[in-house]
Sequence to fold (171 residues):
Amino acid sequence: MPCRLVLAAMLLFSCTRCPLVPLKLVLDTPDGKTLEVLSLDDDGNLRVALSGTNPVARFDSRGCLVGPDGVWVEQTRSGTLWTQRTSVDVGECFLKMPDRTLTILPDGMVQAGDEALVGTFRFVGFDRRSCCAARILLQTFLSMMPSMAVSDGNPQVLPRPEHSFCPDLHR
Fold:
C-alpha cells in the first residue's frame, strides 16, 4: 500500500468522530431548582443522578454509549441514533422525534418546540464540539423513560444497526 494511503487510513481511524466532552444534563424546574439528571465526566463515565455515584455506562468516542449489557445508544454511519428500542434521525445539534424535534441551542438549552410543564432541560458545559455527546445523552435520558410496551412486557427489540461504528461493543 503506498505511503499516502497508509497515512490517510491512519488519520481516518485516529480521528474522534464524537468527541468526549464533560457534560451534565440538568432540569431547571419552574420553582427555580436545578436537578442533575445525567453527567458525563472527562474519562467517559456516565452517571445517573438517581443511581448514586458509580458510573452506569461508558462513552466511546466512536459515538457509542456502552453499559454492562452492551451498547445503549449509538450514533450510526447512516446518521441515526440507535437504541435497542428505537432509531431516531439526527442533525448537527438536534434529534428528530416522530412527534417533534428536540434542538440543542448554542447555550445548551434543549428546545422541544413547546413549553414543558416540568421545567427546561439544558446541558452544562455545552459548546458546538459537544453536539454528538449531547445528542447521545439526550437520547439516553429519553430511553430511560418506560414505554407502555416495556411496562407491559412486550418491548420491541431492534437488531444491531447495520451501519454500526461499534460492532465489537454490541452483545
In short: The radius of gyration is 17 Å. The first strand starts at residue 23 and ends at 28. DSSP finds three helices and twelve strands in the chain.
